[in-house]
Amino acid sequence: MTSSRGLFERARELFPGGVNSPVRAAVKPQPFFVEDAHGARITTTDGDELIDWVMGYGPLILGHRNGKVLARVREQLEKGWLYGAPSRTELELAEKILRYYGPGMVRFVNSGTEATLTAIRLARAYTRRRILVKFEGCYHGSNDSLLVKAGSSALHYGVPTSMGVPEELAALTIVLPYNDIEAFMDAMGRVGEKVAAVIVEPVAANMGLVLPKEGFLETIKEEAKKAGALLVFDEVVTGFRLGLGGAQGEFGVKPDVTTLGKVIGGGFPIGAVAAGKDLMMELSPSGPAFNAGTFNAHPVSMAAGLATIEALEEGWPYRIADEAAGDVAEELGRIAEDKGLDVTVNRLASMLQIFFTEGPIRDYSDVARSDKGKYGRMQEAMAEAGVFIPPSQFETWFASAAHTEECVMKTVEAARRALVH
Ligand SMILES: Cc1ncc(COP(=O)(O)O)c(C=O)c1O
Prior knowledge:
By secondary structure, the chain is α/β, with parallel strands linked by helices.
């Protein structure tokens, strides 16, 4: 049986929830299986062609099966794909990253989760402190220390969002509302000298898309510095996505540590930590903070990442992707207005999300007001009309350099039918 329905039945016996990452199970009317993908389109095992606004949840900024990335990966495969020893491409990719996120050094790992895990270990080692500060609605991968939500005490010491995370560990993480400068200043005033790191998505892409309000990033940088805590920008999504310089380039605020992933691997598994040399020298083998990995700096990911960044440096991929996202966002707003729907669309560069509530959408509590049922119904109707959008309100739509005007038109047509009261 090769229908998605049949395959999903089989998958349910093999994997918890039938999938290997939870959001994939949320796709309605039911998760589809992919046979092939090219440009901005996915073909399912059922033979349906879908315009893809998920793009692997962010990495595929050049589109599926980009020719330049494919050629570089093939070239690498011809030379072997795992050495357990350094290869030249890792130097080239690190130099590219440091051109935009440096000066300093890099450690390559295999996922965004590992990047944030390594960044917070590094920060704790460097500062000899234990407390972390994060923001509600920001996601930093499936690390124990960051799978935490605000507890009920005034200081918002965290409680686990997942069974299996020890409460004692979660209690070392303070969770504050995103974009709330006062709450941050208050918390830092009380416990700042114990804080090892403040970690933030400088543009939040895991509660839909939420932009930092003016002064937010500047304030957390200033206050973290005053307290002797390190500022970590989690740019796993935004790095090389919002532009070559990511969110720090867009907003002109430089963190102490940057975590990267997604785009820098061109669709292959990757994560990276970039920071100043004195800090990075804390990492093993030069320093006492441990990190290692069989697949760290995997040659295929290095090759794909390098090809991707070289293409991005030509500028045109950003122009196309940003314009596609801009056009869709504008049209979604127009359709909602024509139909008298209470909808807010947030968009930045090639990322967007639609919320079924009045704006502005500035933090998790705003997102929580959005009608998730309506979003789910929209996703299902869009899928039926041949358009794949993220199945969760908390994800973000990603445009790519392969999203043509025709893709935009078809998406807008589908949305006109899908958006109902
Ligand atoms: C901001 C952010 N940080 C970290 C991660 C974790 O990355 P990965 O899924 O590669 O482990 C994600 C994943 O979506 C993310 O959005």
